Amino acid sequence: MNFGAGVPWRGVSAVADEKLANNVEASMDVRIVAFARARLEFSGHAHFGRSELREVLAYVVKSGPGAGEIRKPTRHGVTKAIQRLTDWGVFSPGSWSECIVFPGMSVQNGSKAQGEKPCPGRQPGS
Predict the structure, then answer these.
(1) What confidence category does residue 124 fall into, taking pLDDT thresholds of 50, 70 and 90?
(2) DSSP class of residue 72?
(3) What count of other Cβ atoms lies within 10 Å of the Cβ of residue 6?
């Protein structure tokens, strides 16, 4: 990995990121970043199936009506979280629930670009 002269970098385990992504105690934002890093392809993109993020981001209702139930976040909630992370510079503009893109100088994937699938169609309005 090389982010340029004098730019330090760290390695992150995809297994640890998968575990964090599935931790129902972690916030949705943290879980989305972890799941995207775990899926990172050589291109800097992380691809997901339709509604896949909603499935992995299921959570247990802690109190009130439905306490103890497992629920999926709304599509709107996932979209807002991705937009928030994009606004903060964590993801690149144009990221959406089926293709999250990291800025070029924020992450790198050390594996070879084998079998990468192309980006799915753009989200309407993006």
Answers:
(1) very low
(2) P
(3) 5
Identity of the residue numbered 108? Q
8 A C-beta contact, residue 79 and residue 125? no
- List the structure tokens of 105: 């100088």
30-37's contacts with Cβ under 8 Å and 24+ in sequence apart are: 31/56, 31/57, 32/57, 32/78, 32/81, 32/82, 32/85, 32/100, 33/85, 33/90, 36/91, 36/100, 36/102, 37/12, 37/102, 37/107
42-64 pLDDT tens trace: 778 899 998 899 998 988 888 88
Report the alpha-carbon distance of residue 25 to residue 45 in Å, rounded: 26
Q: Enter the tokens of residue 17.
A: 């990121």
